[in-house]
Specification:
Order of helices and strands: EEHHEHEHEHEHEEEEHEHHHEE
Oligomer: single chain
Structural class: alpha/beta
């Protein structure tokens, strides 16, 4: 790849110029999901438990021949079309997702092989913050003069890590967060802009809590065995950590920018379940009308959540409108990004 010259100072503005989304056609009602799990399990699940506890009515589920890369490619094609570009116009491709097709090679190569082009292709992984991390990395590479135009994509298929049967109530509790998941993908084109763009980014990481939840199989700790391929975690512990550190980062953004909720046209936030979202509103004070609620009909889309929300609100934004994105990811990390529409 020909490396571009470093940018002339002042550093150029970098923003999002195209957004795309892709969702599976198949819909799975939460009631049907519980019936399926209950029929295969050794424990009795109270009727309506999944729907009551999560507030999720349904979610989209990938077909057997659809993968994380499938949704990334479809979303990428739409983002490129929205911005009036082709894959050959991109010199950095980041597959930024919690899901992936394979352990090796990077799923970014699978995406590019189907999409076309010859950009530098790399995977970025940080649980449900992967996509927003990818956007920040793309912005940084452009500012540093290492890329001219970046395509950041995510494809999430977390429904495949739901435990298919339960042997005890203790196992049900540790697996319950996995039953919030839904599948889908999103993509954004990131490049220099004349006005607006990404104007503020912040992160807060508390890695001491990495073991609270996750999928622990496939790596060197647990290379084989179905037990480690299912999501498990302590949902209450995760929420407690996010509540302790989430308000601090929002206070910093407010102090640094001078902007409060009223100054944002929309607020996008990672959504795990309806009760989690309601607690977020209570703790932060964000006006509910500023939010784009997706969790009730799409479930927890992992890192695709913010991208799907951005695609939904983008058409209604005018030049100069600000969006605050708030990412929450296992590990654990909280991330914020302020974007102003060019």
């Amino acid at each position: 790849m020909n490396v571009p010259s470093p940018p002339e100072w002042p550093v150029p503005r970098v923003g999002i110029t195209g957004v795309g989304v892709s969702l599976p056609d198949r819909t799975l009602a939460t009631a049907d999901l519980q019936d399926r799990i209950a029929a295969a399990s050794d424990v009795v699940l109270p009727p309506g438990l999944f729907a009551t506890m999560t507030g999720i009515r349904q979610r989209r589920v990938a077909a057997d021949d659809e993968y994380a890369s499938t949704f990334a490619v479809r979303a990428a094609q739409r983002a490129l079309a929205a911005a009036g570009h082709t894959p050959d116009d991109v010199d950095l491709l980041l597959f930024a997702s919690a899901s992936r097709d394979l352990v090796e090679p990077a799923t970014a190569h699978i995406v590019q092989a189907e999409l076309g082009g010859s950009a530098h292709a790399v995977d970025v992984s940080n649980a449900c913050n992967s996509f927003i991390n990818g956007i920040d990395l793309a912005r940084s590479m452009i500012v540093a003069g290492r890329a001219r135009r970046a395509l950041v994509v995510t494809g999430e298929t977390p429904t495949r890590v739901m435990r298919p049967r339960l042997e005890s109530m203790a196992q049900a509790r540790s697996s319950f967060a996995g039953y919030t998941f839904g599948d889908g993908g999103a993509a954004v084109l990131v490049e220099p802009v004349r006005r607006g763009g990404i104007v503020d980014v912040d992160t807060e990481t508390r890695s001491g809590h990495w073991s609270v939840g996750g999928i622990f199989g496939g790596g060197s700790r647990h290379p084989r065995g179905d037990e480690h391929t299912y999501f498990h975690g302590d949902g209450h512990a995760l929420r407690s950590v996010f509540e302790r550190i989430g308000t601090d980062i929002l206070d910093r953004v407010r102090q640094r920018t001078g902007w409060d909720w009223v100054d944002y046209e929309r607020v996008l936030v990672h959504q795990v379940s309806v009760p989690y979202l309601e607690r977020f509103i209570e703790v932060t004070g964000v006006p509910k009308e500023k939010l784009e609620v997706t969790v009730d009909e799409l479930g927890n889309l992992a890192s695709a959540t913010l991208g799907v929300q951005l695609a939904r609100v983008d058409a209604g934004l005018r030049s100069g409108d600000r969006v605050l994105a708030i990412g929450l990811g296992g590990g654990v990390s909280v991330m914020t990004m302020v974007w102003e529409k060019p």
